[in-house]
Fold:
Amino acid sequence: MKEFFLGIDVGSVSTNIVLIDKEGEVFYSAYTRTNGQPLESVKKGIKELHKAFPKDGRIRGVGSTGSGRQLIGTMVGADVIKNEITAHATATAHVVPDVKTIFEIGGQDSKIIIIENQMVVDFAMNTVCAAGTGSFLDHQSERLGIPIEEFGDLALTAERDVRIAGRCTVFAESDMIAKQQFGFSKAEIIKGLCEALVRNYINNLGRGKKLEAPFVFQGGVAANKGIKSAFEKEINHEVIIPKHHNIMGAIGAAILAREYVEESNCPTKFRGFEATDLSFEPSAFECGGCSNKCEVIKVEMEKQVVAMWGDRCGKWANSL
Amino acid sequence: MKVSFPYMGTTIVYKKLLELLGHEVIMPPKPSQRTINLGVKYSPEFACFPLKVIMGSYIEALEAGAEVLVTSGGHGPCRAGFYEQVHRRILEEKGHTVDFIVFNSMFRDFKQFYSNIKKLKDKNSWLKVIKSLWLVYLMINKLDILEKEVQRIRAYEVKRGETTKVWESIQKDFDTVRNKVQVMAAYDKGRKRLADIKTYEVKEDRKLRIGIVGEIYVVMEASINMKMEELLGNMGAEVERSQYLSQWVAYNALPSFINKTHEVDIIKAGEPFIPINIGGHAKQTVGHIADYGERGFDGVIHLMPFGCLPELVSQSIIPKISQQYDIPVLTLSIDEQTGTANNLTRVEAFIDLIRGKRMKKIS
Ligand code: SF4
Ligand code: SF4
Structure:
């Protein structure tokens, strides 16, 4: 019998599902768009996984992470529900054991994690400024009429350097137009944009931190060669991109589940593949208990309330 | 006269003092989303966050019928010194007539202090005033002792939320006291009730201690800082704040020859990092981090109101202190969006970091 650990990373943009074996090797992975419907995308993802799941396989533990970790963790019956920082760091330290600095850039957010002797010692997250995330590039690629997949390769063909003001998306846009009028090629502009994003990222998240090699770059944006080379230019050092760079969060969640199950020796809380067919209804209501008027999330499974959160006073969460 | 005051921390003590002097006290409601919305709506956009919340708090107090607002002034070059003028203006523009009584440290302007006291004294005898002050001071001290206990026990409670419930009911008990004997009775009862809370046995080397530092309002007022103390407590960490009312009173109202407060040492500890007075609580912030570092705390949460200049300065120095004392620090900016999942994620990750540091691994 083969034993597996399931990791689910539910973000606002993508939902990732991975299966790792006891050695931590990735056995299966799937990357789908969340499209604002985390429950649906996870249900779908788990059904797909079920089809590919070996007959003699057994799930021994489940971990969830990402902004939807609570909801999804409740639905599938996760043993570990972890924040993204810890999940990412766990996965990276697994593939690059001596890593010191992790750059992570996703579609809607970005993080930096500083590691010493396999321990997280500092981190920062950017969740407000689009100029340091993948959506900045998406936006500009649309403007330039160049598919984002070609962005990276094109950037590498640039002959000259051009500096684009990248403090914020609005400025970058007007500056980009100005630079185009000066006669810079699209490739050069794109290279400039990549460098602007990296500068922004480092200024925003790297401030006051000691950035030391080995550097690992992961997240959806790590597929972009232009950004990778912009990073290498900015920090003057090689940057490692792990093979599974865009599903590191899910891998981390799976590893954490494995550690938890092995240490505690508890049987998994996984509800099984069939559980995706159960009725699972999250709903929100406004509590009128005081003038906070909290939006409380209530999750029902087969008409049974299984979780509640969002209340500031804890009167609902503690009532279960 | 009907008096009110900004809502911050254990408010029953201000209420008690005013009541003892025979005033009718209008309790401002605990800051809620409505308070914040009101405050944000009527304050200048670039004002710091505490100014906005207190603005909302005043509006709600006036709605409830308050005529006079008693508040403390701020020192030095940051905006705290203008609070009262800004608030007064905005309230006047909104069509409210209101009187302010602003207390500053009595050593900076004794005349003002004296005339304020006289206003509040009303027809009471001086003896009565002094007795009332003394009783309230005793109350503050006792409440702070109990609160420190609450902050410790909460990390280990078996039934989640129990400690907070007990603490709330202790405050209610204190709300009814009229004299020293009753204060002591409420205190003893409180101690006993806290001791009765069922807790988990946790080994000494697995205990986590976290300090909370930053600007006084966001540190003291739980309703706007994501209930940071409860949050950390629920994650299993003991908590200590940089500010307690008893310290504030001792530092600002006791003459220096008996004023051997911890705060004096703290400010000294902060001096190497911020040598001059830049206002707010920046010096205390860095001093407290150094102090927590020296006392072997596991980490520090630094709360910084959005738009606060002094804390911005301390934030920029924190990496240096953090390194020197080998103590992790997480800075959170507090504004009307604070309750968001992202900040929760940061706090969770921070606790993992601290635990990992203890156990020499990531999780
Ligand atoms: S959940 Fe609690 S804090 Fe929120 S509105 Fe209801 S009573 Fe108020
Ligand atoms: S310390 Fe900061 S938050 Fe407080 S008044 Fe000064 S600037 Fe505003």
About this structure: Chain B has a mean pLDDT of 84. The beta strands of chain B are 2-4, 24-25, 68-72, 99-103, 208-214, 237-241, 299-305, 329-334. The pocket of iron/sulfur cluster (ligand 2) is lined by residues B 48, 50, 74, 78-80, 215, 279-280, 305, 308-311 (CB under 6 Å). The radius of gyration of chain B is 20 Å.
